[in-house]
Write a structure and sequence with these properties.
The chain is of the alpha/beta class and 372 residues long. The chain is built from twelve helices and ten strands.
């Protein structure tokens, strides 16, 4: 029986990467805005479209920090974000000098609850520095226009964390990357576009991207004097070369993963499993599934482990249950978050999964769920 790992980074042909690395070594430029970095940023902007500019960064977490610095109000402390997300999101907010305020998610989309955010802003909007909207699991938020209207109504900037969602699309076909004031992506080894470590900030506001590029290089101006409170958040030439090769193979990868997603849905929906709204327009690195009941996850997890199928439970615990977040404010009861986090299970979604592999995973889950 073949072992199916939870995540297997799929990288370009090493011989192609080696050629790029030879060019980098010959040029002797390894960072600080070299030619591969410039090309990678340009190709990312072309992929997204909508006349966006892109700044590539050392990681998505750094990208979030730079976006907070560039956009959020310095005279206020609170930042709205959902509790059902990765720990990197509130940690980036805290490291940027702000205080997260946690809201719930909506039951079908699994996206942040815009009505809960609106109620909080109506009561305490004068203390809010900005909104950090998470595209949950990298799936596009169909209510993005409502969030943009809300941010505009209260005079706030809207940073969108689309970390695992590069190449995902909104329901009307638009690529992620051009909404809000900026969108932030991750190219970590676990993502669909994997380069090891890396990220990007994309925006239609080209001046904002120029500031992010300055901030990620110690805030240096053209005369090499630090004119802004920046940090070292640059992406290396080696990582940029890897990213360019990944973009070359991305269309094929997306088509393959769409096939696998469809097979999973066909196999698991009859078992009572639920999927995030908008899933089939997304490019997730793994498949999040909501089991019918909390009590089933332990049994399903054990069955998958015995069948040598890797799995995880993102995002459990949610942010408000992390020890480092003790004392972080919640807007109200996070009912949907608590329910979903107890039922969520994340399954392998790899380019090389066969139809037999997917059927095997579905069979294991079906037997575990049916046996309870």
């Amino acid at each position: 029986m073949r072992r199916i790992p939870f995540l297997t980074p799929r990288l370009p042909d090493p011989s192609l990467v080696a050629r790029d690395y030879e060019k980098i070594f010959a040029a002797g430029i390894f960072t600080n805005g070299g030619p591969f970095e410039g090309r990678f940023a340009l190709e990312l902007s072309r992929w997204i479209g909508n006349d966006v500019a892109v700044a590539v960064t050392a990681s998505a977490t750094v990208g979030l920090q730079l976006a907070c610095k560039a956009l959020f109000r310095a005279d206020r402390r609170l930042v709205l974000l959902a509790s059902f997300t990765a720990a990197a999101v509130p940690l980036a907010v805290i490291w940027s000098g702000y205080e997260p305020v946690l809201i719930d998610i909506e039951p079908l989309s699994w996206q942040p609850d815009v009505q809960m955010a609106e109620r909080f802003l109506e009561e305490e909007g004068d203390d809010v520095a900005g909104i950090l909207l998470t595209n949950t699991f990298g799936t596009a938020n169909a209510a993005i226009a409502a969030w943009e209207v809300l941010a505009d109504r209260f005079g706030l900037r809207l940073v969108i964390d689309s970390a695992p969602g590069f190449a995902s699309r909104y329901p009307w076909g638009e690529s992620l990357g051009a909404r809000g004031d900026c969108e932030v992506f991750s190219f970590h080894a676990t993502k669909t576009v994997a380069i090891g470590e890396g990220g990007a900030v994309a925006s239609r506001d080209h001046e904002m991207i120029r500031r992010v590029n300055r901030l990620r290089n110690f805030g240096f101006g053209d005369d090499r004097r630090s004119v802004d409170i920046g940090l070292n958040g640059k992406l290396t030439e080696l990582g940029s070369a890897m990213g360019l090769r990944q973009l070359e193979m991305l269309e094929e990868r997306l088509a393959r993963r769409q096939e696998i997603l469809h097979r999973y849905v066909v196999g698991l929906e009859p078992l009572g499993c639920a999927f995030q709204a908008g899933l089939m327009s997304s490019a997730p690195p793994f498949l999040p599934v909501a089991l019918p009941a909390h009590c089933q996850r332990e049994q399903v997890g054990l069955a998958l482990q015995e069948a040598e199928v890797g799995w995880r439970a993102y995002y459990d615990p949610p942010i408000h249950c992390h020890p480092s977040m003790t004392g972080v404010r919640k807007v109200g009861p996070l009912t949907v978050t608590d329910d979903l986090s107890g039922r969520i299970i994340s399954l392998p979604l790899d380019d090389r999964l066969s139809s037999e592999d997917v059927a095997r995973v579905a069979t294991v889950i079906g037997e575990a769920v049916g046996g309870q």
